């Protein structure tokens, strides 16, 4: 009888976040992004990785974000968009 359990560790590596058209502090965006993505993964997991390890080269087809967001809000919204991609929404290139 198999036991379905959540992984003990989830590791998400983001090589690059490209911020075109935004006038914000990239370090503040990155910090807010990391906090929000960590929260989302803890609460909701990574559905695309439910069957084991997952390596994704590109997430695309995700929602556009308005250019006037604060660094904190931009980081949060980017994390939500990335988590949506890791949840099976958008286009995933492996």
UniProtKB/TrEMBL annotation:
This is Uncharacterized protein. It comes from the Bacteria.
């Amino acid at each position: 009888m198999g036991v379905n359990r959540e992984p003990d560790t989830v590791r998400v590596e983001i090589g690059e976040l490209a911020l075109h058209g935004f006038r914000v502090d990239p370090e503040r965006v990155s910090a807010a992004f990391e906090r929000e993505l960590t929260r989302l993964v803890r609460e909701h997991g990574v559905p695309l990785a439910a069957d084991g390890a997952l390596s994704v080269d590109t997430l695309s087809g995700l929602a556009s974000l308005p250019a006037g967001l604060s660094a904190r809000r931009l980081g949060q919204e980017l994390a939500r968009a990335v988590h949506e991609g890791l949840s099976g929404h958008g286009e995933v290139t492996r």
